[in-house]
Amino acid sequence: MTGKTVTLILEPLDGLFFRDGRPFDASTSATSGLPQPQTLAGALRTALMQNLRCDFGKLNSDLERGEPLDAALADQGADLGAIAGLSVRGPWLAKDGAPLLPAPLQLHREKHGRALHLLTPLRDDLPGWRETAAPEWERPLWVPTEAVTEPAGGFITLKGMAEVLKGRPPAADALLSGACLYGIDRRVGLAIKGDTLTGEDAMLYGVGFLRLRDGVSFVAELDGLTAPLRKALDAQQVIAWGGEGRRVRVRITDGALPWPEPPDTPASDQGGTVLVLTAPAFLDGGWRGAGWRPLAATVRDPVPVSGWDLARRQPKPTRFAVPAGSVFFFAGDPPGDLAHGLGSAEDRRLGYGCVLKGVWRHA
Predict the structure, then answer these.
(1) Looking at residue 127, what is its pLDDT?
(2) Which are the contacts of 359, defined by CB distance < 8 A and separation ≥ 6?
(3) Residue 320 DSSP SS3
(4) Averaged over 210-239, what is the pLDDT?
(5) What pLDDT score was predicted for residue 2?
(6) What is the mean pLDDT of residues 37-47?
(7) What's the DSSP call for residue 243?
(8) Which residues contact 231 (CB under 8 A, 6 or more apart)?
(9) Statement: residue 228 has pLDDT above 60
(10) In this structure, is the dihedral angle defined by the CA atoms of residues 290, 292, 293 and 294, taken in order, positive or negative?
């Protein structure tokens, strides 16, 4: 891949709108969630194609004939062809420029206090554990405290995540709630007739836009940004992102985000390694992945992912991803190259499957 890693800072110029694949029509209401990785990858690709004067009609015809995206773009020039090689990671929220990640699900908070604890695999079985359907290698997770706890939730600083990756609970101030970072701006609109551009009687709809608090932005990483593509993105500055044609200002800085360094793997009798998902991932074989056997895992409900394929002018099929914040525990090092990302190469280029490697230790 050509080009160096750069960091993107995305500052909304108004409320943003990201939704799932459920139908949205007049007389209904929809509320934005946080953006999925593919929405940013698609927005960047589209902005660059428009800046480089891509012929979208020809692109659509080439794709319908079965030509791969990289070849179809390269048919219109080398600079356009380089767009297919771009690799995006993120987006993530940031407070005053400092990245924030979804809090890992192994992190628990005491219900009647602020103290934080980490789930770890037990050495021994719980009573009745072997009567469950769990494979023999899987271990139950446990919080080493008598206090009642619950998943911490919210978002964690990179400093706090560094502590988690070392197998230690972070300080309480490493966590921020979603309410501290964003809110929902609710508005009412009127459906418009396409032929006359006049309002439809009694056809109101509601929209909840994502509005970031002061000092909050999004950040992401981009690999493969060649000199011509960087020039085109610098010239663009403002791009459309998400639904309703909402805009964000894009700034580029050289270098990657300051990710925590992975700690050394402990001896097998002292613990093992963890993979913490910082972005959703599509896994073959469900949460256990394909061909790899986690010792334990803590995973939330799957995230439905769909969208609109602008080049092919059709909806994308709905898929279900393991959400960010999910944690996978291994007895030793994770198999293969999982520490470099989960899922297919194409999904990773779109920003899915980002992980951080850490350790867990027996309590």
Answers:
(1) 65
(2) 165, 166, 167, 263, 264, 265, 266, 271, 272, 273, 274
(3) strand
(4) 92
(5) 47
(6) 92
(7) G
(8) none
(9) yes
(10) negative
